Please model this.
Amino acid sequence: MASNRLPLAPAVGAALLVAVPLILPDWMKFLVTLAMAKFMAVLAVALFLRANQVTFGHAMFYAVGAYTVGFGVKWFGLRDMVLLVPLGALLGAAVAALIGLVMARYREVFFAMLNLAFSMMLYGVLLKLYWLTGGTDGLSAGAPTFLGYAPPREYLRDFLYYATLGVTGIVIYAVYRFLASPLGFYLKAMADNEIRIEYSGESVRHVMYTTYVLSGALAGVGGVLAAFTVGHIVPEYSFWIQSGDFVFVALLGGYGSVVGPLVGSIAFEFIRTYASKYFPNEWQMMLGIIMLAIILFRPGGLWTIYEGLAARFGRRESEAERA
Amino acid sequence: MPEAPILQTVDLTKSFGMVRAADAINVAIGAGELVGIVGANGSGKTTFLNIITGYLRPDRGRVLFLGEDRTGLPPRVVTKLGIARSFQIPQLYTSLTVLESLLLSLAAEAGQGTGFWQPLYRREWTEEGLATLERFGLRSYAHRPVSELPEGGRKLLDIALSFALRPKLLLMDEPTSGVSIEDKFQVMDTLMKIVEETRLTTIFVEHDMEVVQRYGRRVLAFNDGKVIADGTPQAVLADPEVRKAVLGRV
Model:
């Protein structure tokens, strides 16, 4: 009954990601690295979409991660990725733990807009505190080290790529476990019925809060990796358009699974690159058309195309077995 | 009554504007009792449950559970203390499967509802969950989405979710409302068998006299927020005042 061919696809996908630096040109390597970094912030947004909550402010935790690198390099001479990735997660979680005290009380439009409000406050601060943040000039990340080892310049992109891929693997595993846990199921159940959760003796606010802290950590890690990939850290990391992109990508890839946002994130970077290359003035219209098509025809996101195929192949095979 | 009551209400009073939904209700429920509450629409039956579970705060009076004053605690805390309820309109997780919904109750009961690393599907919970579903006659729906359940099944699952919390007191609000006449007694038979087997102290609200007569061992009749009769089904349902209030005729 189980189909053996298509569930191999994730393994093939993983193998492709491992092989990317060997087969693709540098600019594509860069694109995929950035896509994997942003994926973690997209995943943070996708968690809340499962509970039917939209956030237009998660770029703030992405910015927290990025500025962790910026400040680390500028003030503390910290440039080791193995140190900065967990530090970014920790600081993202810490900021989320603070803001989450407020956010866990709100839902829907208020949740969406309050997140936006906090992210824009952070944007304002990053912009104004020139002496600390460099204002619009931003900060530079420089070349990272890996456990003290500084890779030669020509291999730096590959090191960065594989480090990001490794972190991506850890994040996928961790979020997968989270979603399979009681709290992960309560998160989904929240969208159906908060009353029943309270009448089971569990606190919906606690579910929201825990998820919020996790989402802060995820976006924080994404920010650290993006900062090293791009090399330059500016207040735009916290800008509301960046938050909007995360929501866009979550819908594009599909938030019903952990891999959907990764597929969406990679697709998004390529769509944006090609669209702005071939339609330099209308590329945003392209994104609009694609979003429209997704919502009309594939409301579950790109990932459901694969799921649909897997189901169909599975059926065909089981029919073949029976015949 | 040999032991101290599990639940006792003292002088419970609650008004909504000019309407007295609860008017000085004094009731004591002993361990292992099976109590049916009858009354016409708007007689204050559901308000009574809502006050006990902390959904509503009374204007006056107290709720004692296991001898302790628990008035005004929120539903979440009241549930943790051991009072579980089901709803007139089933409160379900429509996007989860039937089994997953039940597993969430078992996780909550085990104090692991906020765990975010160990999986929800654990062997011991799955086994217990399937056994509970078997008991409620829902085993064949275990892996189907809740949204596919027929109405009778929805009512049963709503009660099963509360039952799985292993409460000391189970409150059921109109377990047969919305269930077809043919299925009504089957649903009640299923429920009462479970209640008998587990000796679970149970209060059920019902506007159908026939159901109360058949299944209640003690019946409380409500009218205008007051308890107008309390006793065996035969005695209460023979009371002319009750017949007038509930049936509209003597």
Q: What stands out?
A: The mean pLDDT of chain A is 89. The first helix of chain A runs from residue 8 to 23. Chain A touches chain B at residues 177-178, 180-186, 188-189, 191-193, 195-196, 198-203, 206-207, 210, 214 (CB under 8 Å).
